[in-house]
Every structure is written in C-alpha cells, then in structure tokens.
From TrEMBL:
<protein>
    <recommendedName>
        <fullName>Winged helix-turn-helix domain-containing protein</fullName>
    </recommendedName>
</protein>
<dbReference type="InterPro" id="IPR009351">
    <property type="entry name" value="AlkZ-like"/>
</dbReference>
<dbReference type="Pfam" id="PF06224">
    <property type="entry name" value="AlkZ-like"/>
</dbReference>
Length: 389
C-alpha cells in the first residue's frame, strides 16, 4: 500500500481528473468526465450547472447544454441529487427507477392522475406542469404541489417520462419511448454492475477515493462498494494507499500529465470538486460551507460565496451577485484565507484573479464588475473603482 504521489500531486491529480487543468471541448465530454453535473435553481448569478461547465469549457454558453440535451447526448435524472448525466450511463439510472415502481417519490402515487397525465402527453406531446389546470385553488409551496405536478414527477422518477428541455427552469416532459435514443442500452444493471459503475465513475472523475466517498449519498451501498474495491484490489485492478487512517483506492495506471497553470478558478457551492466537504477539508485544507440556508445575521462570507482556487490552493471566497439591470457583477464580500498575501499584493494572483472575474462577469452577461467589500487592504485599494470587462 505504498503511496506513489505526494499530497500536492494528489491534489493536482484530482484537478486533472476534474477537467480543470485541460480545456474540455463539449458538454457531452465534460459531463462524462465528471460523471454528473448537479442542477440547482439559485439564480443570483448564472445557475450552478452552467457555471460548472463554464469552469471547464472555454467560451461555454447555456445554450450548449440545451443543445446537448436536445441531441440526446446527456439526460436529466437523479444522481445523489438532480443532475445531468451522460446518456451512455442511462442504464444505470434504471437501478433507482425500478425501486420507484410501486413506491413513492416524496408523495404517495395517485395512479388515476398518473394515467391521465400520461395520456395527455401521449396525445399532445411534451408538456410541463403549468400546462395542467389545477382546480383546487392557488398553488402552495413545493410540498403542496398540484396533483398533475406530483404525477409528472412520479412518472419521471419511475422512468416513464424524460425531460426534453426546460423553459424558464420548468421541466418539459415527454414519454421516454419518444426521447431515448434507440441505440442506448436500456437493460437494468445487476447490483454488481451498478457497484462497479459507481467505482469506475468516481475514480475516473476524482483520481482516488474511499469506499464512503464512492458511495456518497447512495443509501445501503457502502458495504457492496467496499467488497468490490477489495476484490478489484486483490486482482490487481486497483492500487491503494492510506492517509489519515483511511484506505484510498486508485487505478495503477494513473499519471499526472497536465501542467498546473497560474490560474484562478471561481467554483460554486455545487461544483463537483467541492461537493464532498470532508474530502475538501482533508486534502485541500479548506473548510467550506454554503451559507444560502444560514440566517443573514449568522453568515460569515455571504449568501452565495464562490470558492477561489488559485493554482492548487483554495485562497478565499467571494460572495457574488449579478445586477442584471445595470450589467454589473457585484463582488459583495471578498474574503481571503488567513496567511494569503500578508506581505502585500501578489501580482501573479492579481493577474489570474482579474482574468477569472472578467470571464465570469461576461459569462453572467455583465460588462463591468465592482468590489464592494474585502478583508484585504491591498485588494480594496487596487479595486476601489468599478472595473470594465
């Protein structure tokens, strides 16, 4: 169980496998590289799933994701959360879909409404929840969804419907038989195949991992993953090392081949690199929490703080908001970690930060950006005036 890489090399291997060190060329390639891209609805800036792709694809625009979905190169379903997934992995979504049949997804299934909803889509083509009338009064919160919306979601989770597109973030559903490309394998995997799939996808995307990390938010699968990892290790398909008392697994052929640029990445709270907070803390020494759900008076870093990754080190956070009426990206609070640039400004960091902010501002449809508040005197002075993109 020797360790062939230094801790810093493991960080860079993770970044490499995450598609950060080399530009990705298409949405389909990037989603496959990452194994999933989580969908999120927060829109104080461009939504998280688009931002994840922007961080890895030069010149990315949201219409590219829409196009990939329309072409059947990716599909929307559930990973550990709502996500876009590679169409090649469709059969592995059937493991969850089969569990949904005869069961419920948040709500008790209403077979009569489900039949009616299915019949309308069959007759009329793709529909969204708002296309169905609700006769019981005004819509309430999400747990009081109208019957048709509950039925649509149940049919989607069971695999009878797929999402063909989103309109103003609303799902538009059609029958799976009309959406799924004919050449896609739709045979449900065995438990062993599904377990191996989880391992392969995780190690491809993260370079190395523990059984718990690979089975992250996959209820009841940690034991099966651990057994399969042990079997693959014994057969020489995997190698392992220990760190902080945990066994980590990786492919023996893993190599670091992408150089580390002088670059700043601004990563959102749902980015694949950040989503497992304990792993982030252990390996990158970065204690990160999304504060969207924290009461305003208790927030330390801001409502929607992006993590600032410079080279292979997380150096701070920046709370962002796109003022779409004025075209200004507001850096509402920039907080550097203790010990970062304590002896003045680092010109390499400033150059990389400038580039990252300008690109992110343009991605959000802004032509200017403004630093509102910062905990670093030098940065406050440097960016005292509004900046053009």
């Amino acid at each position: 169980m020797s360790n062939p890489f230094s801790p810093r090399e493991w960080l860079q291997l993770t970044m490499q496998q995450q598609g950060l060190l080399q530009p990705q060329t298409s949405v389909a390639e990037t989603v496959l590289r990452l194994s999933y891209v989580q969908i999120d609805s927060i829109n104080v800036v461009e939504r998280a799933h688009h931002h994840v792709l922007h961080s890895r694809m030069p010149g990315y625009q949201p219409k590219m994701l829409d196009s990939a979905l329309a072409k059947g190169e990716i599909f929307e379903y559930w990973s550990h959360a709502a996500a876009y997934l590679p169409i090649a992995d469709y059969r592995f979504s059937l493991q969850r879909k089969l569990l949904q049949n005869g069961g419920k997804h948040w709500f008790e299934p209403d077979d009569k409404v489900m039949q009616e909803v299915r019949a309308r889509i069959l007759a009329e083509g793709p529909l969204k929840a708002s296309d169905f009338e609700h006769s019981e009064g005004k819509n309430g919160a999400w747990w009081d969804w109208k019957p048709a919306k509950k039925a649509l979601e149940q049919l989607f989770m069971r695999g009878e419907l797929m999402v063909v597109r989103r309109e103003k973030f609303q799902k538009v559903y059609d029958l799976t038989a009309r959406v799924l490309p004919q050449d896609i394998n739709a045979k449900a995997p065995t438990e062993a195949e599904f377990t191996r799939y989880l391992i392969d996808r995780y190690l491809d995307a993260h370079a190395f991992g523990t059984a718990a990390q690979i089975a992250y938010l996959r209820k009841g699968l940690k034991s099966a993953v651990a057994q399969e990892l042990a079997e693959m290790l014994s057969q020489g398909g995997l190698a392992s090392f220990k760190a902080a008392g945990q066994s980590y697994f990786y492919y023996p052929a893993l190599q670091l081949h992408a150089p580390l640029p002088n670059k700043v990445w601004l990563l959102n709270p749902f980015d694949n690199l950040l989503i497992q907070r304990q792993r982030l803390k252990q390996w990158f020494d970065f204690d990160y929490q999304i504060e969207v759900y924290v009461p305003a008076e208790k927030r330390r870093y801001g409502y929607y703080s992006l993590a600032i990754l410079w080279r292979d080190t997380f150096v701070g956070r920046v709370d962002v908001k796109a003022d779409r009426q004025t075209g200004i990206l507001l850096l509402q609070q920039l907080t550097l970690e203790a010990g970062v640039m304590v002896n003045g400004l680092d010109e390499d960091f400033c150059a990389a930060f400038d580039t990252a902010i300008r690109e992110y501002a343009r991605f959000n449809g802004c032509d200017r950006w403004k630093l509102v508040k910062a905990n670093h005197k030098g940065l406050k002075q440097k960016y005292a005036r509004q900046q053009k993109c």
